[in-house]
Fold:
Amino acid sequence: MVFTFRGQDVHGFCLDSTIGEFVHTREKMVFPQDGGKKIYSANEGNSVHWDQSIRDAIEVFKGGEKPYSARYVGSMVADIHRTILYGGIYLYPA
Structure:
């Protein structure tokens, strides 16, 4: 996947290995207006090193009447792609 940003538009391209080129597959990508799916993605393996405000935010995502579902991968490529397409929250705090 390759994403390009020009002006206000975001476009997605996928590698077509049969021709060895990136093909324009998604025009004018936007986040879902309703916020999309209630999913968050973070690599929580280093959470003991996060700032308290980040840890507090994750607890908010996990709690409440309708908690967010978690994707435990925290892989930038896969999860950002998914987040851009379907909504949700991606974070990878240092």
